[in-house]
Amino acid sequence: MKTFLLTIVVGLSAALADGAGPVASIMQFHAAWCGPCRRMQPIVDELRQSGLAIRPIDIDAEQALAQRYGVRTIPCFVAVDADGNEVERLTGATSAEKLRSLFGKQASAPSPQGPSLVLVSYSVGGKQSLASGTVVDRLAGKASVVLTCAHGYTAVSKIVVSSQDGKQFEGIVMGMDAAEDVCLLLTADMGIRQRPIGSIAPKPGDDVWLAGFAQGKRFQVTRGKVLGFVPPAAGRKETFLKTSCRADPGCSGGCFVDARGYVVGTVTAAETTSGGGPRREESIGPCMPVVLPAIHCETLR
Q: Residues near 35 by Cβ (< 8 Å), separated by ≥ 6?
């Protein structure tokens, strides 16, 4: 086996974007053997003849593109902006009116409670710990990449990644940057559509959502504001962001999502206040566009 270094570049499988703009075109995922697809074709042809930009994509001929957009059921109509970022989708047979209504739309508020959030459990010295993670990439339908925190993984004996429907997958550390507290885990394909990573840092005052598993027992989404940024300290290269989102134990590694639904950070720590007991209200996490290119991964081939 050969050990080599793989630099993770910002651009995981079309996951990187500056935020979705208005719909520029619709990708029509179909197949020759699909009955509902054939029945939809006269409607699609009529819309295309009227000047609407609808691109037919045969999932058998363009499997990589279907996997990139997480298409699992057809017919599927994915509305994208000029950069290929998804804005909205319709699955199954639909009407000409609904397809036409997709044009002119813009990305809506995020839904961080989507299935991309996963629970990570790991053993260190026989002690079980829990963290949150987010599926940020799918590699050719054969593997999933999970973004989480790095603290606690230095002497891990076993990592298990659980989807929200209870399915479990063994995870291995694909890459880690302990100073920035970000880690990438690799699992078999979990069948979960990835959440895209943003390339624009949020600004103070911007809305942000935090998704994680509080205490590892319940799903939690909290909304807050970006309060500012924590400057680099000893042993740390990159700037961390600070938010007013609530982060309970178990949320470590959970994702911060901006108003367009893109991952802009992960939970690293929480500040507490004295008096009436600890209150975890100000969460700190690395800013993804800056941190991810710094990760170097060791992989055994």
A: none
- Could you give the C-alpha distances from 46 to 42, 67, 91, 207, in angstroms and in order? 6, 28, 19, 41
CA 298 to centroid of chain Cα atoms: 22
Report the amino acid identity of residue 84: G
Active site residue 251: no
Q: Residues 37, 183, 255, 287: which is the catalytic one?
A: 37
User: Which CATH number belongs to the domain containing residue 79 in this structure?
Assistant: 3.40.30.10
208/281 same-domain check = yes
- Residue 254, CA atoms < 13 Å, CB-side half-sphere: 33
Q: What is the pLDDT of residues 133-190, one digit of tens each?
A: 999 888 767 899 899 888 766 556 688 998 887 889 999 888 887 777 888 889 999 9
Based on the number of CB atoms within 10 Å of its own CB, is 200 exposed (0-12), middle (13-18) or buried (19 or more)?
Answer: middle
Clarify whether 287 is annotated catalytic.
Answer: no
Q: Are 83 and 42 in contact (CB under 8 A)?
A: no
